[in-house]
Amino acid sequence: MNKWVLTTLLASSLALAGCQSAYYGAMEKVGYHKRDIMVDRVQDAKESQEEAQQQFSSALEEMQALLAFDGGDLEKAYNKATDEYESAQSAADEVSNRIDKVEDVAQALFEEWQSEIDEISKASLRRNSAAKLKETQRSYQSLVKSMRRAEAKMPPILTAMKDNMLYLKHNLNAQAIGAIKGEFTSLQSDISSLINEMNKSIAESNKFIESMEQGS
């Protein structure tokens, strides 16, 4: 069994058990340290934000198509818009899940790092390691703040989308579509702001990953 297969099996079994400390310990035994896990999880969080950007844009496009409806199958257009809204909701949930996982491994990594610093007997080495820890923590805090800012913009957009979709579900006609057109401009602006905030977070993620890889 190769290292990748073993790593995957360990990750699956221990993650299901919900025991993070045992998970990190088992992964370390196969040469996969907390630092490596953190880099991978930041990468995963970044990719989930990229996916969310696409999903929110697609949802906006389908709502735009629905609001511009002019003959044809209105229910089909509504169903497509609903599907995209639900996909955006799932993408948002995944973003939050991935950020939570980044925070979990970061806490474990920094606690281990500080504990190991305390074991270094030579003062100069201890100071250098402590300085590197603080630098990494500062970079990490900037990253997480950026991720959480982008994350916080998603629920209000999803709420507005849900309100519109439920309203249309109960009143699926041209008059109902006209009634929500006024909210569309605001929704466009909010999604544009979300995408911009996510781009900042993605850039922070790339910078953080690069700094971690250079320091490895």
From TrEMBL:
Coiled coil segments of this chain: 35-153
Matches recorded under PROSITE patterns: PROKAR_LIPOPROTEIN
SUPFAM superfamilies for this protein: Tropomyosin
Superkingdom of the source species: Bacteria
Name of a matching Pfam family: DUF2959
UniProt keyword list: Coiled coil, Signal
Signal peptide: 1-17
The name this protein goes by in its record: DUF2959 domain-containing protein
Organism: Shewanella aestuarii
